[in-house]
Each structure stands twice: as C-alpha cells, then as structure tokens.
Amino acid sequence: MVGSDDRSAQAAAPPGGGDPSRSPHRQGSASNETARRLAMLRDMARIRAFEHEAVAAMRSGQAPGVVHPSIGQEGVAVGVCANLRRADRITSTHRGHGHAIAKGADARAMMLELHGRAGGSCGGKGGSMHIADFAVGMLGANGVVGAGIPIACGAAQAIRLRRAVRSAEAAARLAGGQRNREPAGAEEDDAIVACFFGDGAVNRGPFLEGMNWAALYRLPVLFVCEDNGFAAFTRNSAVTAGGGPAVRAEACGVPAIAVDGEDALAVDAVAAELVARIRGGAGPQFLHARCYRWEGHTGTDAAAYRPAEEAAAARDRDCIRRLAAALATAGVAAEEIAAIEAEAAEEMASHRAAAMAAPWPDPGAAFSDVQDAGAPA
Amino acid sequence: MVGSDDRSAQAAAPPGGGDPSRSPHRQGSASNETARRLAMLRDMARIRAFEHEAVAAMRSGQAPGVVHPSIGQEGVAVGVCANLRRADRITSTHRGHGHAIAKGADARAMMLELHGRAGGSCGGKGGSMHIADFAVGMLGANGVVGAGIPIACGAAQAIRLRRAVRSAEAAARLAGGQRNREPAGAEEDDAIVACFFGDGAVNRGPFLEGMNWAALYRLPVLFVCEDNGFAAFTRNSAVTAGGGPAVRAEACGVPAIAVDGEDALAVDAVAAELVARIRGGAGPQFLHARCYRWEGHTGTDAAAYRPAEEAAAARDRDCIRRLAAALATAGVAAEEIAAIEAEAAEEMASHRAAAMAAPWPDPGAAFSDVQDAGAPA
Amino acid sequence: MTRMSFAEAARTALAEEMRRDPLVWALGEDLAQGGIFGQYKGLAEEFGPDRIVSTPISESAIMGAGLGAALCGTRPVIEMRIADFTLCAMDELVSQIAKVRYMFGGQGRAALVVRMPQGMWRNSAAQHSQCLEAWLTHIPGLVVAAPGTPADAAGLLKAAIRSDDPVVLMEPKNLWTAEGEVPEAVEPVALGVARQVAQGDAATVVTWSACVPVVEQGARDSGVACDVFDLRSLWPWDEAAVIASARRTGRLLVVHEAVTVSGFGAEVVARVVEALGPGGLRAVERLGAPRAPVPFSPPLEDAMRMTPARVVQAIRRVASARH
Amino acid sequence: MTRMSFAEAARTALAEEMRRDPLVWALGEDLAQGGIFGQYKGLAEEFGPDRIVSTPISESAIMGAGLGAALCGTRPVIEMRIADFTLCAMDELVSQIAKVRYMFGGQGRAALVVRMPQGMWRNSAAQHSQCLEAWLTHIPGLVVAAPGTPADAAGLLKAAIRSDDPVVLMEPKNLWTAEGEVPEAVEPVALGVARQVAQGDAATVVTWSACVPVVEQGARDSGVACDVFDLRSLWPWDEAAVIASARRTGRLLVVHEAVTVSGFGAEVVARVVEALGPGGLRAVERLGAPRAPVPFSPPLEDAMRMTPARVVQAIRRVASARH
Ligand SMILES: Cc1ncc(C[n+]2csc(CCOP(=O)(O)OP(=O)(O)O)c2C)c(N)n1
Ligand SMILES: Cc1ncc(C[n+]2csc(CCOP(=O)(O)OP(=O)(O)O)c2C)c(N)n1
Ligand SMILES: [Mg+2]
Ligand SMILES: [Mg+2]
C-alpha cells in the first residue's frame, strides 16, 4: 500500500547518525548489521526493564500517579527510532516510555521523573504521562489521545520553514529567536518528525485533521500507529468501523503500510524505507504496526476484559525473544544476549534506586516555568 | 461505490408520505412521475426565489447579519428531500435555506426570521444561520462547519431507541417525556435523518468522528456532502488532500456514491435508492453531490477569487433549467413551468413584504428560552 | 439511610432513573466496563448496549450525538470521563447544547446531562486535574452542579436527569470512594439550593465539590463558629442564602479547588459585594489554587491542594480582620 | 502619527514583524485572501504561501500545528477567524499550549500568538458573538491581551509576537474598521500595563476591548470626572494602577461586553476588594451582558449591547452611591 513517488525512489541519507550507541549505521556488512541489531535488542531490553521497574514502582506506591506500560510493544518504538537521528523529532503518547528510550532519552532522568523527583526529565512536574527530552528531539508524551498528531505536523512545518530561512542566509536570526532546548544537529536539512499514537486515536477528530494537513503540505512526518488492539478497557475493533487506521490515512492522502509490530526487524526494514522516502521529499508516510499490550491499560489494571489466553499467546510472540532468536541464528552467542538483558535490568534497577534516593524538587518549582508575564506570585 | 448489503435490497416503503405537496408519491405512472417532478421544480423555484429575495434584503440592509445563498445548488436539497417524510429529520448548515424549504419548512416564517421579526421561525433570535423548523423535522441550520454531523448521529440513535421503547410497549412514557416540537408522524418506525454539510466540513474532526459513529452503530443517517468547490473564499481542493469526501466516508465504513448535484433527477434517483437502503436497515449511506455556488460565500461577497467564466459556466448548467427541460420533454407546457416560477417569485416577494411589515419581537424575548433554572432576570 | 460510596450512590441513582424512564440512556468511553470510577458498574448488564453505550474515543461525537438524541426526545447522560476531555468537545457543549433552545426560539431543548468528573486525583498532573466550573457558569443556557457528598451525588444526578435544561454535573474525582449517608429513597435535589453544613456568626464560608469535606474539617478545626455552605449548584447558585448569611456575619470566605484567578469564587465575591455594598462587609477573601498548572510530584502538587490547615488560617483571618 | 483603521494597523504591525524575523509566520483559514477582516491583506503576496499559510477548516490542527511549530523554534501567529471557533480547538490551547512549558519542566516553550477576534458584530447571533476572555484569564500559562484602539492593535500584536509566552490576542470584531492615530514606528506595548484614558476623582472605571470607545463616550457624557482605564492586557492586568486609583476614588465600575456572571469583571472586583478591604470602597459595580446568548434580531441584540447611555447611568450610580 505504500504510495510510490518518483522522488522517494532516490536513496536518502543512511539512517543512524545520532548517538552511535542509539542509532547504529546500517551499511550492509554482516557485522555492522549484527551490531545494529544488537543495539536494537539492547534498547528493547532497556525499555522492558525500565517498564518492569516502573510498574513495580507504581504498584508499590513509590511512583505516584499512573504508569501505562508498553511491555510487548518495544519492537515498534525501537524499530522506528533505529531509523531516526538526533535531529529528528518525535511526538509520543501516554504510553511513551518506549518511544523516549528508543529516541535516546535519558532513562535515569525518566525514572526520576516517574518518581516525581528533582533531576527528573521534567523536574518532576510531568510524571510518566508527560515525559519529554527535548535534547534528543523527544517533544513529549501526551495525556490527551491523538493530541500529538497536529503537534507533529507543526513541528515538521517548522523544520521546513527553518530550512528555508537558512537557505535564504538569514540564519543569523536563529541565534536570537531560539528559545527551546534542541537536539544536537537540529538544523539538519532533512530532519523529520515521527509521530506515535495508538489505535484508539484514529477515532478522534485530530487524526483526520492531521492526516489531511500533513498530506496537503507534504510534510516530513512518519505517522506510526501502534495498534495494540485496545483503547483503555475496550477492544478497539468494537468501536472502530471501516477498514482501519491505514485505510483512513490513505483516504486523506497519506500512503500507508502495515507491518507486524512484534517483529522488530520487519518494523526496522519498513521504517527505513518510509523514512528514506520522507527525507527524499515524498511527504508523510503512515506505518500501521500491529502489536499487543501485554499488561493492562495501566500498571494496576488486571485487564479482566480480555481472555487470558489471548495475552498469553501475545507473550509467546515476544518481540524481544524473536529478535534474540534472529541474532542467535546470525551467530551471536546466547551469553552475549543474556548479558545485554542483564545489563539492561541492572541499569534500570539502579535508576530506580537512584530515583528513590533522589530528593524531592525544590518547592518553588511548583511556581516556576508557568509563564514570564503574569507568573504566579 | 454504493456498498451492497443484502438487507438493503428489499424494497423499502415508497418515498413521499408527508405533506403531499412537498413529497409527492412516485408510483411509476407517467403522470404521477411528472407530478412529482413538477413538485420538485416548484420547490427548487421557491428556494431560488426565496434566496433572491434574501440576498436583496441583505444587500439593502433590510435583513441584518449575513445570508449565505445556495443559489445553483437547489437540486441537491430538493432531490434529497423529495425522498424524505415529515417524520424524517434533517440537520443543516449555514447555507441552509434550501434544505429547510425542501423539507417543508414555513417559508414565510423563514423570511420573517431573516428579517429578525416576530413570527420568524425562531422568533427572530436565530437569523439566517440558525433557521430551524422542528415541526417538519428540520433540526436546524448551524453556524459551525461540520457541527451538524454528530447531532444527526445522535438524532438517529434517539429514533432507534424510541422505536425500541415503543416496541417494548413502554410508549405510555413518551407523553410525559416529550418536550420538543416534533414533526407529525415522528414515531414512524423507519424514520431516518438526512445530514447536509459542505465540502469544507470534511476537513474537520467531527466529520471523522461522525462517520465512524454512524457506521459503528449502523445508524439510519443519509450524509449529504454538498460539494460546491469552495469553503468560504478558498477553493476547497487547495486545502483538501486525498481522494475526497466519498473516499473518506468509505474509509470509516460508510458506503458512498457520487452524483451530479446539478441534475436534480439524478440526485432524486440516487437518494431514493440510498434512503430505501437506510430504511431497510443497511446503516448510514453517503451521497457526494457535486455542484457549484453561483453567488459569493455571502450575499455581499463578489467572489473575486475565482474566474468569472467558471461561475458563468455553472450558471449555464442551471439545475432548474435542466429539470424544466426534462419536464418539457415529458410534455409539460412551457406555460405551466413559467407559472410555477412566477408563483414562486410572487410567494417569496409577498413573504418579503410581510417580513418588512412585521413587528419586531417583544423585547422580553431577549431573555426568554435561555433556561428554566437560573434564567436571566 | 445507608452508608455508601459516592460512586455507589451515583450508580444507584442512575440505575433508578433508567428504570423509571426508558428514554434515559448513557454514552461514553468504557461504560460497558463500568466507567473509570465504577460509577456505571453493572449497568450495561442490566440495560444493554443500546442504553449503556460504550463509545469510541470521540469526544466531539459523544457530546454532539447526545445533543441530537435530546432533540429527538430521549434523555442522554453524556459521560466525558474527566472534565479535561470536555476541552475536546467544547464547541458541542458551548455553541450547540447551551444555545440550541434560545437560538431556535424554544423549538427544541437539550434536556441532557453532561457528567465531567474534575479536579486533582492521584497525581494525574496538568492535563488531568483541571477544575473548569467557572467557565461553565459563564455560559448562558447551562445549569452547573457540583456535588460534594454521596447523597448529593445521587440527588443532583436525579435532578439533572429530570431537568429540561442541559445540566453539567461536575463530580469531584477525589471523592468517588468517599463514603456518606444516603437516603433509601433518593429524591432529586433542587437545583440552586445550597446545603448549610454548619452555623455560626463569625463568618460566611462558601464552598463546593471536593472542598466540602476539607472546609468542614477546617471549620471544625478553626474553632470559629461560621455559617458554612456547600453550594451544590453553581448556576443557579443560592445567592439568597449566602447573601443573607453574609449580611449577618459581614465576613465572606469562598474556598475552591480551582485556580483563584477568574474562578467562580470571584463571582460569589463580586455578587455579594454588589448586593450588600462594600460597606456591608468587613472582610472578604477567596481561597483557591495559584495560577499555575497542577504539577505531578507529590510535594509540588501539595502546593496546589486545598487543605484544612489553609482553611483554618483563612477562616481566622477573615473572622478577625478589621477595616 | 498616522490615522488608520484597526485592521490596517494590525496588518502593518504583522508585516513589520514578519520582515524583522523570518521565523514569524501565520496560519489560518482564508489568510491568502486577506483574512475575513482584511487584517492579512497583501501579506500572502509579500511573504508567500509558506509564511502566510491558508489552511483547511481544521481548528484543532491549526492550533496544534502552531504549537508544534513553536516547539521547533518558529514563531507562529495562529489565526482562529473568530473566538467562537476556538471552541473547536480548546484542548490544543488549554491542555497543550498553556501547559507545555510547565509540564515539561521548562524544556520547551510555546512562543506563539493566538488571534481570536471576538464579540458582537453585525447581528451574527449566538454562535458568532461570544466574548470568552474570562475563560482564558483562568488558565495558567496564558497571557491574554485585548486591544481597544488601532495603536494598541499594532503595539500589542508586536508585543505578543516577541513574547516567549503564548499570548492570546482578542481583537474586537466590531472595531476592525474603527480609525485612530497610530505612531509611524509602532513599539511593542508592555504586556500588563493599562492605558489611562481619562482622569478624575469621582470613580475608577475599568474596561477593555470593544467597550473602550463606548466607555470613553459614556464617561464624557456622564459629566462625572473619573479615572478611566483601558486595561489592554487582562492577564497580567494592571492591578497596581487600578488599585491605586480605587484607593483614591473609593468607587469601582468595571464595564465589559461579555456576560457579567463569571466575567473578568468579577475578578477585577474581587481582587480590588481583597486588596483594599471592603471598607476601602464605597461603591462597586459590574456592567456587562445578561446571562443570555446573543440574539439575532437587532432590537433584541441591542438588549445585550453595551452603550454609552448604560455607562452614563452606571457611572452616576457608582459615583453617588452611599453606604
Ligand atoms: C481525548 C482523550 N479521551 C480519553 C482519554 C482517556 N484515555 C487515556 S488512554 C486511552 C486509550 C487510548 O487507546 P490507544 O490510543 O489505542 O492507546 P493505547 O493506550 O492502546 O496505547 C483513553 C481512552 C484521553 N487520554 N484523551
Ligand atoms: C468550525 C468553523 N470554522 C470556520 C467557520 C467559518 N466558515 C463559515 S462557512 C465556511 C466555509 C464552509 O465551506 P463548506 O463546508 O464547503 O460549505 P459552503 O459554504 O461551501 O456551503 C467557513 C470556513 C465556521 N463557521 N466554523
Ligand atoms: Mg491501543
Ligand atoms: Mg463548499
């Protein structure tokens, strides 16, 4: 279903290019390919370990508020972000830990954020549902379903406007006008925006408005629908008519393709192709990734509204084990894989310990960063 | 593109059945068919005459506020409403005079409303953009683009719920619970809702939400997109990506069909088929009617943003002249047609005179019908 | 009287109304699963999927369809999940529901209920903690109610369902599990009538919603004998009772969870001052949240929270102020 | 000084800002056609379709895209056509734009402008006549400005564009064609600073937006010498100037077009009463619209309209009230 466009055929810059440990180059040689896949595995393991800690912290009451785990869906976040660079931006959802980690966000700061501590990604003011890490182009989780879609469109529009301004040699202006923390290399000319959202979001108006908008202005946006089958406590197919997310996107002029989101390598391959098209100027592309939410809607939802066998079957399809198996086939030793997972678990456990030990934010933080003019006394 | 559905194949009740002068029966016999078409012509002529008066009244300052004429689009309103009954409901738009008249609204009251006079459809409180006539199932024009779409969905849901309640022999409850003015025969079991909106509305979120909703609950709604090519001062194709209204509707599971909206008989034929399907339980259907807005966006917009030839060509395709020609071919005398048009012109001129002579509303009306509890002093 | 939770009282009231009138129905996300606070638990089983309608995440359609359904003679209860999400359906609420009766000259009425649980709850942060009742009191056509006890959760819901006006019912998220005495046979609570919680001559204290138990506690702790009112309805609100009390005490304190600036407390203060003249009062104070979003971290969130201790101080300030 | 219309002043200011900073751009419906009040006339020709972006009828996307674009370092001017349509984009404004800086701990800022012309204009009826400024003053994170003269239309727009805060600019629909003196070189108007329109000891009169000329006229006609303030900014607002004046005059009148109940006048009154104590004032009054939608018919609409005559009466009442 991927729309074909002449301009998209021309090979774009190779993926990777940010922090090499995050987004390894893929250059065809078997060992590089393996290194890339190992890096993907590492991030997937890190996301899972992060969320195991996060869920435990929520259940024990150590992390206040609500945590929405993406356990089982890691292949989508990592498969997509493996094709992004630091300068690229992402928008995320209430279920955004995976997107953030895959984009290179500081996991320790994220864990502190979940615990509401000083040093958290947002200084403790956002929590799990509002994690952002602008330094790596992560423009924020969002507590409103679908709200990231128009934001991603505007981000892409800004990237293009700034490119035009630079090419008009007015770049000098940028220094003064620049206010936000920005990822390194934010001025790369072919930066794109990846916009993650769930299958529930396709029933909200901003989905339509954003698809039309991106197609109309031919914006560099990769839309990623993580279709885990549920919207909160409701099976999404029970409230969604028609042919589904991809068909709706295509109806608005955004070419779409479906992928098995539990196969990280498949996601990686398709995302690579779509990202190349977008960098090449083909306009927005849509990736419909089917997956499954292993846990409940939140860390404390027992998900009694679905058959246990269904969740068990999804666990059997584990995207991490699948990638590990592919690596084993490619000759990676079981010990190496185990070490990666152990390291991930250790990293996140230590982040959690750090979070528990971290101080609370300064009370004055409650009143800072509201606004300059008319700030609260 | 009309979706096929077994249940829709069974012939539904014949159209017509309301005020016979509005919605004549079509029963196959040539003379009845001609009578029906003459009635359609009469309503189209009445709409045009109404709007000529309305535009003149706006230009002269006699009608305050803004009038949005649908001149040139009469075939859509009449072609659709010829297939509706009193008990059916419609929702309309800012450009809604035609829908109202075609559904049998009181044209004199409408003209008074446009002039803000006592006796107007809404007592002078609504004006052109908010004309409603609940007695004939006209649930209101709307000043917000696309806003009628979810309202139509809910109206259809209510029709179904009330049918269920009746069949559960709880109908006795209705008398007490019934608050709104309702069309005669409002309790017909297979009543439907026709929802009119413009091509501009397909870029608003409620369009998506409403299409999904109607398809999901399989509601008896006929969506009618009057595609006149413009959204205010912008050519709508310049701001709309993808395959257009029908494709978007189908993506949400609403079967769609396109029709030449300047051919009233074609609209009538397709609408008959779709309405029959809906009454038969096939769920929502979508009619994409291409037409052209002869006048500017409002009665005073010169429409300088489009080539004069384009508008002139549309005038040459005049839906009224086309229907008149078909009638002539069927043997109707030119005098009869001219008489219908003259009568229409006379009727609306007299309404306008009546409006100018009518008193202003009682000043207290400004404070009535706000709410019961907490009404303004 | 039975002791039950706020959610249980509300659930029971809705079930009773749905049994009484087959044209009452509810629509919103996850309703078949009982709603996120359990306030719809078991109703889908009793009333079926056509009267307890689980919807897509389509706030505009939920609100707009509710209106359409009201215009065709049914009585929908529109569930917004939390008040913040009403921001996704504001046109439908404010430009459609609130205006339809007036705009159409009384031909149609939006006899419906919009439920929007609001306020801080379990560190939900900025996008899930807003109190927007002041907004809705500003909109002609809307009735606004905000229960603060289980009994009123039931009684106001019944009144809202039976009202021919559109009634916005703002339940305090933080009180769904709170328990209280509820009559066996709940009667509708008259819209616009406050509940006097305590009596005293030292000051007039006005509050509503989640602050009701906080203010009750604070008033007790203060040791100052005040008239304390739980407004219950914000539009119409019980001006007569509050003005009569303030005339007697000469001192007025309004306490709410919402941001103070342009909160409904401003309206209460302005109205009372207009009615009595400034000379009729000796002290006036509003106690609400700072003009800042609600932060996530518990100690930061606490800075925004209304507490009995803050109420105690304010009552003492107001009761002792000299001018 | 040059005499020009409100629309012309605003248009010129935007053009100047766009020339000054290539990262300033505007998006909204029909902008390439000059906007519905001519306030964008000719800009598409000068700046091209990537900086004067004509959009689909997609209010959520217009508002949300503006935010995304601000987060990536550009300075969008978001045009809502009329304030009523902002109701279709309230989540984006209130839960996204207003909160993004705070929620993300200062990492990103929504340095953008949201223009929403508001109020009654040419009998546009209930859905096209609303004044919702009070709502936005209630929302932490937003700056709210409401020019009442051509010079301020230009100066506040420049200030809004240069501000790093999100600024909501509510232009009075009814004044687009009104003329006034505008400096050759317009400087940004400091946000939060009122403009004193007249001086006098008999009362303090506060107003803004479309009521500015009405109150100027009414104050003249009343023959009573008052301090008259055009607030210009509603958040922050010039509390210092108003409170100082009210302390002197002891009498406060607030006049606005919006519905009185829970309008911004309530905030002004409550704040001044809190600051001075009720004993510091002798008379207080709010003058606004009845709590009813705006009707279409001219004589009915007139019942909602602020007029110099109503202002005259109110000034006399306030200036002469005894308590
Ligand atoms: C506009 C809006 N409506 C409702 C909610 C409550 N809510 C939070 S997550 C969620 C389900 C979202 O489903 P989906 O988009 O599929 O994402 P998933 O949770 O499956 O990742 C809902 C209904 C919300 N956050 N925003
Ligand atoms: C939500 C909203 N945005 C903008 C407007 C202003 N507006 C009124 S009519 C119109 C154009 C509508 O175009 P279309 O839907 O094609 O209907 P047409 O006018 O062509 O009949 C616009 C933008 C509005 N009324 N509502
Ligand atoms: Mg999902
Ligand atoms: Mg159109």
Automatic annotation (TrEMBL), chains C, D:
<dbReference type="Pfam" id="PF02780">
    <property type="entry name" value="Transketolase_C"/>
</dbReference>
<dbReference type="InterPro" id="IPR029061">
    <property type="entry name" value="THDP-binding"/>
</dbReference>
<dbReference type="InterPro" id="IPR033248">
    <property type="entry name" value="Transketolase_C"/>
</dbReference>
<keyword id="KW-0560">Oxidoreductase</keyword>
<protein>
    <submittedName>
        <fullName>Alpha-ketoacid dehydrogenase subunit beta</fullName>
    </submittedName>
</protein>
<dbReference type="InterPro" id="IPR009014">
    <property type="entry name" value="Transketo_C/PFOR_II"/>
</dbReference>
<dbReference type="Pfam" id="PF02779">
    <property type="entry name" value="Transket_pyr"/>
</dbReference>
<dbReference type="InterPro" id="IPR005475">
    <property type="entry name" value="Transketolase-like_Pyr-bd"/>
</dbReference>
<feature type="domain" description="Transketolase-like pyrimidine-binding">
    <location>
        <begin position="4"/>
        <end position="177"/>
    </location>
</feature>
<keyword id="KW-0786">Thiamine pyrophosphate</keyword>
<dbReference type="GO" id="GO:0016491">
    <property type="term" value="F:oxidoreductase activity"/>
</dbReference>
